[in-house]
Design goal:
The protein is built from 8 helices and 7 strands; from the N terminus they run βαβαβαβαβαβαααβ. The protein is of the alpha/beta class and 261 residues long. The model has no long low-confidence stretch (mean pLDDT 97). The structure holds nicotinamide-adenine-dinucleotide (NAD).
Length: 261
């Protein structure tokens, strides 16, 4: 399969899962809009590397996904510069862990803004062009936490459940427009977002990172190893393939058996 000629915008793609998805899509020939935070020189290295390795056009847009105006401007800039946003991957996300009674209101607001509202704003801005062209793929990176809960992650679990709900609504509204909307629900993927949780646990419990990695997996996943970002990328590529043309409104688990229990 080739996705040559399509344009993919992946939010939060300067690191982790988003970068894995951007690489997998670029390997299939899509032009790429990268987004996310980081050091300018490192981001430029990633952008130029993608363009050189896969022979695609690659742009970077530094939109802050907590700001609706930035998001609308990013979609408009991609459409102007690259001609379209055919594949939208709503991936940017943050985490904060604390019991509800100690959960800072500003962390709640930030997680809901970046992990949920940003996907709404980006989807809203991308739909008209996708409908006009009669083809589109919207892929929301939810989580096992979009399907089941864990303690101390109230904002994250609420946002990810919300994202799964939004996926279903958009899928129904767009069912006959050539646009599919699905959610990917990963279990543990070893990225900076999870490395921080492991480091915090090692600090709190006075243990090692290796001990906490094993404990983290054992608590939730029957399969005792991490999913890799490129495997999430592989699933995103499949969702863009003709084989997946009638798959829509689905939360797809890739979680080592987490939610099978
Ligand atoms: P990560 O920290 O490696 O990457 C997050 C990305 O989002 C980075 O590029 C970061 O710069 C960007 N970002 C954060 N705030 C932003 C903002 N305001 N504006 C623009 N970009 C912003 O994390 P990750 O693990 O790769 O997570 C990616 C997605 O996958 C998240 O939605 C996360 O909830 C989800 N997820 C991760 C796991 C896991 O185990 N790592 C599991 C399930 C779901």
């Amino acid at each position: 399969m080739s996705l040559k000629g399509k344009v993919a915008l992946v939010t939060g793609s300067t690191s982790g899962i988003g970068l894995g998805i951007a690489r997998a899509l670029a390997a299939e020939g899509t032009d790429i809009v990268l987004n996310g935070f980081g050091e300018a020189a490192a981001i430029e290295q990633v952008r130029a590397g993608l363009a050189a390795e896969f022979g695609v056009r690659a742009l970077y847009n530094g939109a802050d996904m907590s700001k609706p105006a930035d998001i609308a401007a990013m979609i408009a800039a991609a459409e102007t510069t690259l001609g379209a946003v055919d594949i939208l991957v709503n991936n940017a996300g943050i985490q904060f862990v604390a019991p509800i009674e100690a959960f800072p209101a500003e962390k709640w607001d930030a997680i809901i803004a970046i992990n949920l509202s940003a996907a709404f704003h980006a989807t809203k801005a991308a739909i008209p062009g996708m409908k006009r062209r009669g083809w589109g793929r919207i892929i929301n990176i939810a989580s096992a936490h979009g399907l089941v809960a864990s303690p101390e992650k109230v904002a994250y679990v609420a946002a990810k459940h919300g994202l799964v709900g939004m996926t279903k609504v958009a899928a129904i509204e767009l069912a006959n427009s050539g646009v599919t909307v699905n959610a990917i629900c990963p279990g543990w993927v070893l990225t900076p977002l999870v490395e921080k949780q492991i480091a915090d646990r090692a600090h709190t419990n006075s243990t090692s990172v290796e001990t906490e990695e094993r404990a983290l997996l054992a608590e939730k996943q029957p399969m005792l190893h991490f999913t890799r970002p490129e495997q999430i990328g592989g699933l995103a590529v499949f969702l863009c393939s003709p084989a997946a043309a009638t798959m829509t409104g689905v939360p797809l688990s890739i979680d080592g058996g987490w939610v099978a229990q």
